[in-house]
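Supplementary Data S3. Sequence and structure tokens for construct A.
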Amino acid sequence: MYILYEVADRIATITLNRPEAANAQNGALLDELDAAWMQAAQDPDVSVIVLRAEGKHFSSGHDLNDGDWPGSDEITLEWIIAAESRRYLEYSLRWRNVPKPSIAAVQGKCIAGGLLLCWPCDLIVASEDASFSDPVVMMGIGGVEYHGHTWELGARKAKEILFTGRPVTADEAEKVGMVNKVVPREALDTETRALAERIASMPPFGLRQAKRAVNQTLDVQGFYAAIQSVFDVHQTGHGNALSVSGYPILVNLEQMKEKLR
């Protein structure tokens, strides 16, 4: 079991529970996570959803060594698009549109695919040691599948982070509005819980309407269409890699993770 789930005082807490792998996302973890989100969404006794993680790091991103991916001599672009569309793009958009407020509590590293877990949440509380990065340009790809970079960071900061691969600190993320609050590591759970309790005391229908209003405003500005179109751009990186013997993206991913350890 990669996901823990509990409900208390109208708050559903979803916990990533693969700390020995820095909560790397294999297929089973993502499927369990989606099921937990849907359970919380459908539970009338839940007003707020909290996403947190066990261990030192929130998430080290996609785990391409979990057995779900075919070998480099068997993989096709059609397979990649189908797999990434379902588990990366569709899951993230579904979580974003759950009609209940959600809060991500982020500590340690949140790398590449980790952004697909916290960015769909309405609020982010980060510990002082948290950092956010998307260094997949070194793999020949222009960014992860759910391309919230421009919306979360602003255009120039998004380009800087993608071009350099460097992490964004918690304080920096708060300054650009990607993070709502930065707290000491030891206070992350208590501060997140206090925020969730305050939100849970509000009328559920009012919360739903407020979230809908903000999300629809972003969608009118082009958020949804941009996420969909940039996903297609993302796939050109895989297409290019497939034209090179040995599918080097998988090799480069391991090199990338080694640099970030």
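Construct B, processed identically:
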Amino acid sequence: MSANVFLVPIDPENFDRTVRSAVDLTEYDDHPDALNDVDEVRLWAVDDDSGNGSTFDRMESGDLLLFYHDDEYVATGRVGTTFADDDRWVSGTFWTAFPTTRVYTVTDFASVAAPKRAVNALFDYSKSYTPGFMRVADSRVTADLSSIESAIDHYTKRNA
């Protein structure tokens, strides 16, 4: 199993539409072939303008996703499948102002509420550090992925 961790900025409106709420693909006949074997899926992507194609290319099934907005991490998940959506079907169908071809599915989704400073401490970043879409360097991932998820869950319960 992979041990990559990705820090993922979100747009709340688009995120709520396709990650927080799964998409029912049975309502769409024209979806990409990469989604043929699923009826319901959570979808997210890397903005084509972000320049993070090499980061996207490093995503593997099972990698940990930590989604954040402003000063808070709001969800965790795992990478399911990555694929090139050359027709931009996903972004054109579901998202506003987010054209992209680099799409991935999200599995094991969980809502969380952990302050950015607490998650930054897990990876030895400064309290005020605000990442873009990025893969956390191997040298900063000092615990297994389930331990990282447990720590974030602990912050969520403590702040509830």
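The chain has a mean pLDDT of 92. The radius of gyration is 15 Å.
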